[in-house]
TrEMBL record:
Belongs to the acylphosphatase family. It comes from Pseudomonas asuensis. The gene is acyP. Transmembrane segments: none annotated. Pfam families: Acylphosphatase. It comes from the Bacteria. SUPFAM superfamilies: Acylphosphatase/BLUF domain-like. It catalyses: an acyl phosphate + H2O = a carboxylate + phosphate + H(+). Its EC number is 3.6.1.7. This is acylphosphatase. The lineage of its organism: Bacteria, Pseudomonadati, Pseudomonadota, Gammaproteobacteria, Pseudomonadales. Residues 5-91 form the Acylphosphatase-like domain. Coiled coil: none annotated.
Length: 91
């Protein structure tokens, strides 16, 4: 299968609740590459690349995140592949 890429914004209580690190762990479990970072407006931004089925599972997970997160909205856009090799937390 061919890899797909997504650009994602997650809104809600997603900062200070281990969301970025949990996102990295879930991405690695699913073989997703990319990055995650906090934004100054309280959202989390993610670029993710992977096989379609793995990306779908990842997107489902993003809608709830770790235990203390409260996700209000997940905005997803298609994105061009960047050829990323791992998944990192940007600081």
């Amino acid at each position: 299968m061919s890899r797909l890429a997504k650009h994602i914004y997650v809104d809600g209580v997603v900062q200070g609740v281990h969301y970025r690190e949990s996102t990295r762990e879930e991405a690695e479990r699913l073989g997703i590459t990319g990055w995650v970072k906090n934004l100054s407006d309280g959202r989390v931004e993610i670029k993710a690349e992977g096989e379609p089925e793995a990306l779908e599972q990842f997107l489902v997970w993003l809608h709830h995140g770790p235990a203390h997160a409260r996700v209000n909205q997940v905005a997803i856009q298609d994105h061009s592949l960047l050829g990323l090799n791992d998944f990192i937390v940007q600081r």
